[in-house]
Amino acid sequence: MTQGKGTLYVVATPIGNLEDISLRALDVLRRVAAIAAEDTRHTRKLLSRHEIHTPLESCHAHSSRQRLARLVQRLEEGDDLALVTDAGTPAVSDPGGELIAMALERGLPVAAVPGPSAALAALVVSGLPTHPFAFLGFAPPKGGRRKRFFETYAHLPMTRILYEAPGRLLRTLRDILDHWGDRRIAVARELTKIHEEVFRGTVREALDHFECGVRGEISLVVEGAPEPASEREEGAWLEELEQLLLAEGFRLKSAVGRVCERYQVRRKEVYQAALQILKAHEEPMAETEEGSEHHGKGK
Protein backbone atom coordinates (compact mmCIF):
# COMPACT_ATOMS: atom_id res chain seq x y z
CA MET A 1 0.00 0.00 0.00
CA THR A 2 1.37 3.44 -0.96
CA GLN A 3 1.51 5.72 2.08
CA GLY A 4 -1.34 8.26 2.12
CA LYS A 5 -2.63 7.27 -1.30
CA GLY A 6 -6.04 5.82 -2.10
CA THR A 7 -6.61 2.45 -3.76
CA LEU A 8 -8.49 1.88 -6.99
CA TYR A 9 -10.59 -1.27 -6.54
CA VAL A 10 -11.53 -3.03 -9.80
CA VAL A 11 -14.84 -4.60 -8.81
CA ALA A 12 -16.62 -7.30 -10.83
CA THR A 13 -20.42 -7.03 -10.82
CA PRO A 14 -23.22 -9.39 -12.00
CA ILE A 15 -23.65 -10.09 -15.72
CA GLY A 16 -27.40 -10.61 -15.28
CA ASN A 17 -28.56 -12.08 -11.98
CA LEU A 18 -28.10 -9.40 -9.31
CA GLU A 19 -27.47 -12.08 -6.66
CA ASP A 20 -24.16 -12.96 -8.33
CA ILE A 21 -22.06 -10.51 -6.36
CA SER A 22 -19.55 -11.32 -3.64
CA LEU A 23 -19.72 -10.18 -0.03
CA ARG A 24 -16.33 -8.52 -0.46
CA ALA A 25 -17.56 -6.58 -3.52
CA LEU A 26 -20.54 -5.27 -1.53
CA ASP A 27 -18.26 -4.27 1.34
CA VAL A 28 -15.89 -2.38 -0.99
CA LEU A 29 -18.75 -0.60 -2.77
CA ARG A 30 -20.11 0.57 0.60
CA ARG A 31 -16.87 1.95 2.03
CA VAL A 32 -15.12 3.63 -0.92
CA ALA A 33 -15.44 7.39 -1.36
CA ALA A 34 -16.97 7.06 -4.84
CA ILE A 35 -17.73 4.52 -7.57
CA ALA A 36 -16.57 5.15 -11.15
CA ALA A 37 -19.24 3.53 -13.34
CA GLU A 38 -19.62 2.93 -17.08
CA ASP A 39 -23.33 3.83 -16.84
CA THR A 40 -24.36 5.43 -13.54
CA ARG A 41 -28.06 4.69 -14.14
CA HIS A 42 -27.37 0.99 -14.63
CA THR A 43 -25.09 0.75 -11.59
CA ARG A 44 -27.59 2.63 -9.43
CA LYS A 45 -30.05 -0.28 -9.84
CA LEU A 46 -27.48 -2.69 -8.39
CA LEU A 47 -26.66 -0.32 -5.52
CA SER A 48 -30.33 0.22 -4.71
CA ARG A 49 -30.88 -3.54 -4.59
CA HIS A 50 -28.27 -3.81 -1.84
CA GLU A 51 -29.05 -0.47 -0.14
CA ILE A 52 -25.70 1.10 -1.01
CA HIS A 53 -25.61 4.91 -1.19
CA THR A 54 -22.02 5.59 -2.32
CA PRO A 55 -21.74 8.53 -4.77
CA LEU A 56 -21.33 7.64 -8.45
CA GLU A 57 -18.92 9.13 -11.00
CA SER A 58 -19.22 8.61 -14.75
CA CYS A 59 -16.36 6.69 -16.43
CA HIS A 60 -17.10 5.45 -19.94
CA ALA A 61 -15.62 5.21 -23.44
CA HIS A 62 -16.25 8.91 -24.13
CA SER A 63 -14.94 10.23 -20.82
CA SER A 64 -12.35 12.96 -21.33
CA ARG A 65 -8.78 12.66 -20.12
CA GLN A 66 -9.56 15.57 -17.78
CA ARG A 67 -12.36 13.61 -16.10
CA LEU A 68 -10.14 10.58 -15.67
CA ALA A 69 -7.36 12.81 -14.36
CA ARG A 70 -9.72 14.16 -11.70
CA LEU A 71 -10.42 10.62 -10.52
CA VAL A 72 -6.69 9.90 -10.38
CA GLN A 73 -6.21 13.11 -8.40
CA ARG A 74 -8.74 11.91 -5.83
CA LEU A 75 -6.74 8.70 -5.46
CA GLU A 76 -3.57 10.73 -4.94
CA GLU A 77 -5.34 12.76 -2.27
CA GLY A 78 -6.15 9.57 -0.34
CA ASP A 79 -9.67 8.63 -1.51
CA ASP A 80 -10.37 4.96 -2.18
CA LEU A 81 -12.40 4.50 -5.39
CA ALA A 82 -14.16 1.55 -6.99
CA LEU A 83 -14.30 0.95 -10.75
CA VAL A 84 -17.26 -1.01 -12.13
CA THR A 85 -18.62 -1.78 -15.57
CA ASP A 86 -22.25 -2.35 -16.62
CA ALA A 87 -21.82 -6.11 -16.27
CA GLY A 88 -18.91 -8.38 -15.41
CA THR A 89 -15.27 -7.48 -14.86
CA PRO A 90 -14.00 -3.96 -15.67
CA ALA A 91 -11.35 -3.51 -18.40
CA VAL A 92 -12.31 -6.79 -20.13
CA SER A 93 -13.54 -5.45 -23.50
CA ASP A 94 -14.49 -2.37 -21.50
CA PRO A 95 -13.29 1.29 -21.34
CA GLY A 96 -12.21 1.08 -17.68
CA GLY A 97 -8.73 0.00 -18.69
CA GLU A 98 -7.65 3.58 -19.34
CA LEU A 99 -8.33 4.67 -15.76
CA ILE A 100 -6.42 1.64 -14.46
CA ALA A 101 -3.45 2.47 -16.70
CA MET A 102 -3.41 6.12 -15.55
CA ALA A 103 -3.49 5.08 -11.89
CA LEU A 104 -0.61 2.64 -12.37
CA GLU A 105 1.43 5.26 -14.25
CA ARG A 106 1.22 7.48 -11.15
CA GLY A 107 2.32 4.62 -8.90
CA LEU A 108 -1.09 4.25 -7.26
CA PRO A 109 -2.28 0.92 -5.84
CA VAL A 110 -4.83 -1.04 -7.89
CA ALA A 111 -6.61 -4.07 -6.40
CA ALA A 112 -8.89 -6.64 -8.02
CA VAL A 113 -12.18 -7.71 -6.45
CA PRO A 114 -12.87 -10.70 -8.71
CA GLY A 115 -16.25 -12.05 -9.70
CA PRO A 116 -18.49 -12.60 -12.73
CA SER A 117 -17.14 -12.60 -16.29
CA ALA A 118 -19.29 -13.38 -19.33
CA ALA A 119 -16.28 -14.75 -21.22
CA LEU A 120 -15.33 -17.26 -18.52
CA ALA A 121 -18.94 -18.21 -17.83
CA ALA A 122 -19.47 -19.00 -21.52
CA LEU A 123 -16.19 -20.90 -21.72
CA VAL A 124 -16.88 -23.26 -18.81
CA VAL A 125 -20.34 -24.26 -20.11
CA SER A 126 -19.30 -24.51 -23.77
CA GLY A 127 -18.02 -28.06 -23.67
CA LEU A 128 -14.89 -26.95 -25.54
CA PRO A 129 -11.32 -27.13 -24.16
CA THR A 130 -10.86 -24.53 -21.43
CA HIS A 131 -7.09 -24.22 -21.81
CA PRO A 132 -5.42 -22.72 -23.57
CA PHE A 133 -7.87 -20.10 -24.75
CA ALA A 134 -7.73 -16.64 -26.30
CA PHE A 135 -10.18 -13.82 -25.54
CA LEU A 136 -10.66 -11.67 -28.65
CA GLY A 137 -13.38 -9.24 -27.53
CA PHE A 138 -15.57 -7.73 -30.27
CA ALA A 139 -14.64 -8.09 -33.92
CA PRO A 140 -14.36 -4.74 -35.74
CA PRO A 141 -17.77 -3.89 -37.24
CA LYS A 142 -16.74 -3.54 -40.89
CA GLY A 143 -14.09 -2.90 -43.51
CA GLY A 144 -10.50 -4.03 -43.77
CA ARG A 145 -9.99 -4.16 -40.01
CA ARG A 146 -12.76 -6.75 -39.71
CA LYS A 147 -11.29 -8.90 -42.48
CA ARG A 148 -7.80 -8.70 -40.90
CA PHE A 149 -9.29 -9.65 -37.52
CA PHE A 150 -10.64 -12.97 -38.78
CA GLU A 151 -7.55 -13.67 -40.88
CA THR A 152 -5.19 -12.93 -37.97
CA TYR A 153 -6.84 -15.40 -35.60
CA ALA A 154 -7.71 -18.08 -38.18
CA HIS A 155 -4.80 -20.36 -37.25
CA LEU A 156 -4.92 -20.05 -33.45
CA PRO A 157 -4.73 -23.66 -32.16
CA MET A 158 -6.77 -22.84 -29.07
CA THR A 159 -10.33 -22.07 -28.04
CA ARG A 160 -11.36 -18.54 -29.10
CA ILE A 161 -13.87 -16.36 -27.22
CA LEU A 162 -15.64 -13.38 -28.76
CA TYR A 163 -18.40 -10.98 -27.75
CA GLU A 164 -21.01 -9.93 -30.27
CA ALA A 165 -24.10 -7.75 -30.53
CA PRO A 166 -27.32 -9.54 -31.52
CA GLY A 167 -27.72 -7.54 -34.73
CA ARG A 168 -24.32 -8.72 -36.02
CA LEU A 169 -24.45 -12.35 -34.88
CA LEU A 170 -25.35 -13.91 -38.25
CA ARG A 171 -22.73 -11.87 -40.09
CA THR A 172 -20.08 -12.88 -37.58
CA LEU A 173 -21.04 -16.55 -37.83
CA ARG A 174 -20.69 -16.34 -41.63
CA ASP A 175 -17.28 -14.70 -41.30
CA ILE A 176 -16.17 -17.40 -38.85
CA LEU A 177 -17.35 -20.07 -41.30
CA ASP A 178 -15.52 -18.44 -44.21
CA HIS A 179 -12.24 -17.76 -42.39
CA TRP A 180 -12.05 -20.39 -39.62
CA GLY A 181 -14.09 -23.22 -41.09
CA ASP A 182 -17.08 -25.16 -39.77
CA ARG A 183 -15.67 -25.53 -36.27
CA ARG A 184 -17.50 -26.55 -33.13
CA ILE A 185 -19.05 -23.54 -31.42
CA ALA A 186 -21.05 -22.54 -28.36
CA VAL A 187 -23.27 -19.46 -28.58
CA ALA A 188 -24.08 -18.31 -25.04
CA ARG A 189 -26.94 -15.82 -24.77
CA GLU A 190 -28.37 -13.97 -21.76
CA LEU A 191 -26.20 -15.90 -19.30
CA THR A 192 -27.58 -16.00 -15.72
CA LYS A 193 -30.84 -14.36 -16.87
CA ILE A 194 -34.33 -15.82 -17.22
CA HIS A 195 -33.96 -16.50 -20.95
CA GLU A 196 -30.46 -17.96 -20.76
CA GLU A 197 -29.55 -20.15 -23.74
CA VAL A 198 -26.39 -22.01 -24.72
CA PHE A 199 -26.39 -23.41 -28.23
CA ARG A 200 -23.75 -26.07 -28.91
CA GLY A 201 -23.01 -27.42 -32.38
CA THR A 202 -21.12 -26.42 -35.51
CA VAL A 203 -20.94 -22.94 -37.02
CA ARG A 204 -23.20 -24.01 -39.88
CA GLU A 205 -25.75 -25.41 -37.41
CA ALA A 206 -25.61 -22.17 -35.42
CA LEU A 207 -26.42 -20.19 -38.58
CA ASP A 208 -29.52 -22.33 -39.10
CA HIS A 209 -30.53 -22.10 -35.43
CA PHE A 210 -30.34 -18.30 -35.22
CA GLU A 211 -31.51 -17.48 -38.77
CA CYS A 212 -34.65 -15.74 -37.45
CA GLY A 213 -32.66 -13.35 -35.27
CA VAL A 214 -31.69 -13.19 -31.63
CA ARG A 215 -31.80 -10.87 -28.63
CA GLY A 216 -29.59 -10.31 -25.62
CA GLU A 217 -25.92 -10.26 -24.74
CA ILE A 218 -23.93 -12.88 -26.67
CA SER A 219 -20.63 -14.68 -26.10
CA LEU A 220 -19.17 -16.97 -28.76
CA VAL A 221 -16.81 -19.81 -27.88
CA VAL A 222 -15.18 -21.29 -30.99
CA GLU A 223 -13.07 -24.42 -31.31
CA GLY A 224 -9.41 -23.77 -32.05
CA ALA A 225 -7.89 -24.23 -35.48
CA PRO A 226 -6.91 -27.80 -36.40
CA GLU A 227 -3.30 -28.85 -36.40
CA PRO A 228 -1.63 -28.19 -39.77
CA ALA A 229 -2.31 -31.03 -42.17
CA SER A 230 0.57 -33.31 -43.05
CA GLU A 231 1.71 -33.40 -46.66
CA ARG A 232 -0.10 -36.71 -47.09
CA GLU A 233 -3.39 -35.33 -45.68
CA GLU A 234 -3.11 -32.18 -47.77
CA GLY A 235 -2.51 -34.26 -50.87
CA ALA A 236 -5.62 -36.31 -50.11
CA TRP A 237 -8.03 -33.39 -49.91
CA LEU A 238 -6.47 -31.67 -52.92
CA GLU A 239 -6.82 -34.85 -54.97
CA GLU A 240 -10.46 -35.29 -53.95
CA LEU A 241 -11.18 -31.61 -54.63
CA GLU A 242 -9.77 -31.93 -58.15
CA GLN A 243 -11.83 -35.06 -58.83
CA LEU A 244 -15.01 -33.34 -57.67
CA LEU A 245 -14.36 -30.19 -59.67
CA LEU A 246 -13.77 -32.15 -62.87
CA ALA A 247 -16.78 -34.41 -62.37
CA GLU A 248 -19.59 -33.54 -64.71
CA GLY A 249 -22.30 -31.49 -63.03
CA PHE A 250 -20.38 -30.89 -59.78
CA ARG A 251 -20.40 -27.22 -58.82
CA LEU A 252 -17.57 -25.27 -57.22
CA LYS A 253 -19.54 -24.45 -54.05
CA SER A 254 -20.59 -28.08 -53.53
CA ALA A 255 -17.06 -29.39 -54.06
CA VAL A 256 -15.57 -26.89 -51.61
CA GLY A 257 -18.26 -27.63 -49.01
CA ARG A 258 -17.74 -31.39 -49.19
CA VAL A 259 -13.95 -31.14 -48.79
CA CYS A 260 -14.24 -28.65 -45.90
CA GLU A 261 -16.66 -30.92 -44.04
CA ARG A 262 -14.69 -34.11 -44.59
CA TYR A 263 -11.15 -32.84 -43.97
CA GLN A 264 -11.87 -29.91 -41.60
CA VAL A 265 -9.91 -27.49 -43.77
CA ARG A 266 -10.66 -23.76 -43.82
CA ARG A 267 -13.17 -22.79 -46.51
CA LYS A 268 -11.02 -19.93 -47.76
CA GLU A 269 -8.02 -22.23 -48.27
CA VAL A 270 -10.08 -24.84 -50.13
CA TYR A 271 -11.78 -22.20 -52.27
CA GLN A 272 -8.46 -20.69 -53.36
CA ALA A 273 -7.12 -24.14 -54.18
CA ALA A 274 -10.25 -24.87 -56.22
CA LEU A 275 -9.79 -21.70 -58.27
CA GLN A 276 -6.18 -22.67 -59.01
CA ILE A 277 -7.26 -26.15 -60.11
CA LEU A 278 -9.92 -24.77 -62.43
CA LYS A 279 -7.51 -22.22 -63.87
CA ALA A 280 -4.88 -24.91 -64.49
CA HIS A 281 -7.38 -27.01 -66.43
CA GLU A 282 -8.77 -24.10 -68.41
CA GLU A 283 -5.39 -22.95 -69.78
CA PRO A 284 -4.56 -26.18 -71.70
CA MET A 285 -8.06 -26.14 -73.19
CA ALA A 286 -7.57 -22.55 -74.35
CA GLU A 287 -4.21 -23.43 -75.90
CA THR A 288 -5.76 -26.42 -77.71
CA GLU A 289 -8.56 -24.30 -79.12
CA GLU A 290 -6.08 -21.62 -80.22
CA GLY A 291 -3.92 -24.24 -81.95
CA SER A 292 -6.90 -25.65 -83.80
CA GLU A 293 -7.85 -22.17 -85.00
CA HIS A 294 -4.37 -21.50 -86.41
CA HIS A 295 -4.34 -24.92 -88.05
CA GLY A 296 -7.66 -24.16 -89.75
CA LYS A 297 -6.34 -20.85 -91.11
CA GLY A 298 -3.39 -22.66 -92.66
CA LYS A 299 -5.61 -24.82 -94.85
UniProtKB/TrEMBL annotation:
It catalyses: cytidine(1402) in 16S rRNA + S-adenosyl-L-methionine = 2'-O-methylcytidine(1402) in 16S rRNA + S-adenosyl-L-homocysteine + H(+). Residues 7-206 form the Tetrapyrrole methylase domain. Its main location: cytoplasm. The keyword Zinc does not apply. It holds the Pfam family TP_methylase. CDD domains: RsmI. Keywords: Cytoplasm, Methyltransferase, rRNA processing, S-adenosyl-L-methionine, Transferase. Belongs to the methyltransferase superfamily. RsmI family. This is Ribosomal RNA small subunit methyltransferase I. It comes from Desulfacinum hydrothermale DSM 13146.
